[in-house]
Design brief:
mainly alpha; Tetracycline Repressor, domain 2; 2 domains; 0% strand
Length: 207
């Protein structure tokens, strides 16, 4: 979320925050299920149970609402991986995180894909501002992966020639590609194979 958005939300009353949150939750659910283009402001209004004036009080237009949805989905993606995403500083931690990601897809019957990836597929080329917000969201996802690998590198668990930043990017790319194929095939195997392959590559740098 932008600094202006954070400041604006901080000024809301508890009731206002609850109403705003209900609108964002409704929009996130609808946009994930039907896409941004096919989700109208009126649809969000009905799902959230608010009036048009209430919705426009908190969000001046649909573009502002989309930004809030990106922020909400970023938080949801990261929260779904807690606490393991903060423990990626060992081979065991990486494996446990991998297992949780694959299991989450099994629980969801591989439907829906990645909330951020779904938004990126629709908005990255059409909306530069949304693309920047999504890129920031993916950066937030990559950061704990990078931090864990850097810790392993500094501790000597990975050989000096290992590049934690490139490895972290490869891990996130494997997650996104694996999630897309898993969603398309309704089979968690693509995600499992993608992550197993990139983790095996990281193991080649073991000290």
């Amino acid at each position: 979320m932008s600094e202006d958005g954070q400041a604006g939300e901080a000024r809301l009353t508890a009731k206002g925050k609850a109403t705003r949150g209900r609108i964002v939750d409704a929009a996130a659910e609808l946009m994930f299920a039907h896409g941004v283009a096919r989700t109208g402001v009126e649809d969000v209004q009905k799902r959230a149970g608010v009036s048009a004036s209430q919705l426009y009080h908190y969000f001046g237009d649909k573009r502002t609402l989309v930004r809030a949805v990106i922020a909400r989905q970023t938080e949801a993606v990261l929260e779904a991986q807690e606490p393991l995403i903060g423990r990626l500083d060992s081979f065991e931690g990486l494996q446990a995180w991998r297992d949780v990601l694959v299991d989450l897809q099994r629980q969801r019957a591989c439907a829906g894909g990645c909330p951020l990836g779904t938004l990126a597929a629709e908005l990255a080329d059409a909306d530069p501002e949304a693309r920047a917000e999504l890129a920031a969201g993916f950066d937030r996802w990559e950061e704990p992966i990078r931090a864990g690998l850097r810790a392993m590198h500094e501790r000597g668990d990975l050989r000096p020639e290992a590049d934690p930043d490139r490895l972290a990017l490869a891990v996130l790319a494997a997650v996104q590609g694996g999630l897309l194929l898993t969603q398309t095939r309704r089979d968690p195997e693509p995600l499992a194979v993608a992550l197993d392959t990139v983790l095996a590559h990281i193991h080649t740098f073991a000290a």
